[in-house]
Amino acid sequence: MQVMFTLVRFGVISSVSVTTPAAGGPAGRDAHTPIPVETPIRIGTRGSQLATTQAGTVRDALIAAGHPAELVIIKTAGDKSQAPVAEIGVGVFTTAIRNALHAGEVDVAVHSYKDLPTAPDPGLVIAAVPPREDPRDALVSRGNRVLGELPPGSTVGTSAPRRAAQLRASGLGLEIRPLRGNLDSRLGKVADGELDAVVVARAGLVRIGRAEEVSEAFDPVVLLPAPAQGALAVECRDDDARLVSILAELDDASTRTAIDAERSVLAALEAGCTAPVGAIAEVVESIDEDGRIFTELSLRACVVAEDGSDTVRASVVGSTDRAVELGKEIAAELLELGAAELIGTR
Ligand SMILES: NCc1[nH]cc(CCC(=O)O)c1CC(=O)O
Hints:
By secondary structure, the chain is α/β, with parallel strands linked by helices. The protein is built from 11 helices and 15 strands. It has 3 domains: about 1-20 and about 40-130 and about 230-250, Periplasmic binding protein-like II (D-Maltodextrin-Binding Protein, domain 2); about 135-215, Periplasmic binding protein-like II (D-Maltodextrin-Binding Protein, domain 2, 3-Layer(aba) Sandwich), CATH 3.40.190; about 260-345, Porphobilinogen deaminase, C-terminal domain (Double Stranded RNA Binding Domain), CATH 3.30.160. β1 (about 1-10) and β2 form a beta hairpin.
């Protein structure tokens, strides 16, 4: 028997068809067999407000699709230490959650995609990349000033070498200060006067409901975001076929294509999430000679010397099914322009 119903997810209405076994068939139940209560899908997440909000959107989407789900909070190395991420190492926010997934302590992991190392984790699969939030970096400043209004010597907090390098390259004479901790404590440093401004991912502020505190959202020409910024990776064990197909419902093809291209740049440069590498890809509409509209992938990337003294940039537009290849092409172009030397610059 075919049953059609409609499910609302992330504002998109999609039809799903479910085949139920015919009554009395092999999987049929008589009146005495209790209907089994589905055990909740356990979603592993960090405990920060941002992380639980992000994982909460996945939990809510699963529940809306008829699958009970709950959050399981996991402490990561990144939560236990306030040291710069560049010192604690790659995967500080994700390794403990992935280990819980491998160990069967949780069924799903939700990560900020940009925190994931580029190397795949054997046995795990990114089963869904939900629609991306705003990928841009944002300035939150005292007095609600935009970057160009900050006088030379203004203190700007960020510990991402990519942001620090691009801010130094702006030539505004800003004092870049290290910044770690959760979003709330970062914003608190502006409110209490310790810093004149901070730069954070706008996506994080949107997700925790504080987008109105943004003084300026940077055009990627000014500040190119981190590869995969604003996107989530929803991961499960690759042998869990049932979950792989349930989670696939949450996948957004355009976001996945863009992230594949951006992370391919990072992988080909053999750089990690703390490298001064920016990349942004967008699925854009183009028109062919016959006036037909088709979609293409636009990709821009840069590598900046940490002291801001030099920047190399490259961009390309190509077929959406060549996302990974386009990323490799851009990386090769950046390397030709001297990217390896800039990544090595300290
Ligand atoms: N490295 C920490 C981190 N990982 C993901 C986000 C924000 C959300 C996102 O980029 O998707 C942040 C904070 C920040 O960069 O300001």
